Amino acid sequence: MAGAQQGQQIDISSLSAQQLSQVKKQLDDEVQHLTNSYQSLKRAQAKFRECVANVKSGVAESTKDKPILVPLTSSLYVPGKLADTKHVLVDVGTGFYVEKTTADAEKFYNGKVEELGSNIKELENIANGKAQNLRMVEEVLRQKMIAGQQQGGQGSASTT
Asked: Which domain of life is it from (predicted)?
């Protein structure tokens, strides 16, 4: 099984039912982790899409000097006015903010959306491969269980 983690292929039909169960559990865990990662990437992508929409609509010339609510926390706001419709502060990660023009902010966030899109596609391919491996392991395990029950039911002393 350690060889399988390094990319080597093994004949799963040569594994015992117990070994197949262990491989199945490992694949179940991997598929679950990949699914969680996929959902996280989709949420991040949606957040960046929302940023693009907000830059387009929320920082428009038509909103200049009109009253707005500025969030201090997720549930605390203070009144304010949009003084500059040409520049925004962009969170570029790890607590760093960079002043950008609205056009550059849009490009930045669209780039993030595209980057996450390609990461999501890669992750989908990996998850689909793991899910296919899981189905194969489950099928071989099911066949071994059926064969074991049939042998046990016949009272046969032979082993496979």
From this structure: Eukaryota
Can you name the residues that pair with 71 across neighbouring β-strands? 77
d(CA 18, CA 15) in angstroms, rounded, equals 8
133, 140, 135: which is closest to 19 by C-alpha? 140
> Taking the model in full, what pTM does it have?
0.75
Distance of CA 4 to the CA centre of its chain: 23
Residue carrying the six token digits 């009144």: 79
User: What is the total residue count of the chain?
Assistant: 160
98 neighbors 92 (Cβ within 8 angstroms): yes
Return d(Cα 62, Cα 148) in angstroms, integer: 74
Q: How far apart are CA 69 and CA 80, in angstroms?
A: 6
Per-residue pLDDT of the chain (160 residues; tens, 9 = 90+): 444 445 677 888 888 889 999 999 999 999 999 999 999 999 999 999 999 999 988 887 778 888 889 899 989 999 998 888 899 999 998 989 999 999 999 999 999 999 999 999 999 999 999 999 999 999 999 998 888 788 776 655 555 4
Per the CB < 8 A criterion, the answer to whether 82 and 64 are in contact is yes
